[in-house]
Amino acid sequence: MKYEIITTNDGSKTIYVPHLDETYHSSHGAVQEAIHVFIRHGIRAIEKRELRVFEMGFGTGLNALLTYVESEQFKRTIHYSGIEAYPVELEMAMLMDYCLLIGEEYQGNFAELHQADWNRKHRLSDLFSFEKIHAKIEEFTPPHAEFDIVFFDAFGPRAQEDMWAPSILKKMYDALIPGGFLVTYCAKGQVKRDLKSLGFHVEALPGPPGKREMTRAWKYS
């Protein structure tokens, strides 16, 4: 797969995939979008001091890094699992320079996230443990009723419609505990209808810069 690195509007970088005509993060701002969607309207919407996160798309590791930072800054115990079919190589990930915006003291932690072996559990600190799953989601079933939050950060439906199929969203529903939720940057009508058909309670939230809306979908039973 061919990649290009581009700089987004908040000064952070992301990866552009020419054959999909898609970027890993918003061109309006990679870091600010991730914080808005997955931290502000994700982790911070849960009051529990210990929580489990499943990410659909480990990608560049940005969301995993932000989750680690949240764990350290607010002294919350977080267990993170992320699945990725096509891992980004360490050299390219380090070119993202996320820590210039997030905090240069986290550079070593970011490298460790990428250097850690796949399909094994690791501990980055006393509060933060993680596992990277090298697999296609079509061929993987997450543990049942295990997670408080799903970060759904696959490429958009226009580029990879199959990643947003009801069968994949059903896996996310089943992986959540009652009272857990899925959060995503995507606000496409068909995705929201599919989420509702699976039993999610769907709410539209203000989107990050450059996007009118984002989606949070709760599992109540």
Describe the structure.
By secondary structure, this protein is an alpha/beta fold. The protein has a single domain, classed as 3-Layer(aba) Sandwich (Rossmann fold). It has 7 helices and 11 strands. The strands form 2 sheets. An 8-stranded mixed beta sheet has the order 6-7-5-4-8-9-11-10. Strand 2 (13-17) and strand 3 form a beta hairpin. Helix 1 crosses helix 2. The longest helix is centred in the N-terminal third of the chain and has 13 residues, at 62-74. The mean pLDDT is 94.
Characteristic terms for this protein:
3-stranded antiparallel β-sheet; SAM-dependent_MTases_sf; about 30% strand; tRNA_MNMC2; about 220 residues; alpha/beta; 8-stranded mixed β-sheet; single chain; Rossmann fold
Helices and strands, with pairings:
Layout: E1 4-7, E2 13-17, E3 22-23, H1 30-40, E4 50-56, H2 62-74, E5 77-84, H3 90-94, H4 99-102, H5 107-115, E6 121-123, E7 128-134, E8 147-152, H6 166-175, E9 176-184, H7 189-197, E10 201-206, E11 213-218
Parallel strand pairs: 4-5, 4-8, 5-7, 8-9
Antiparallel strand pairs: 1-2, 2-3, 6-7, 9-11, 10-11
Helix pairs in contact: 1-2
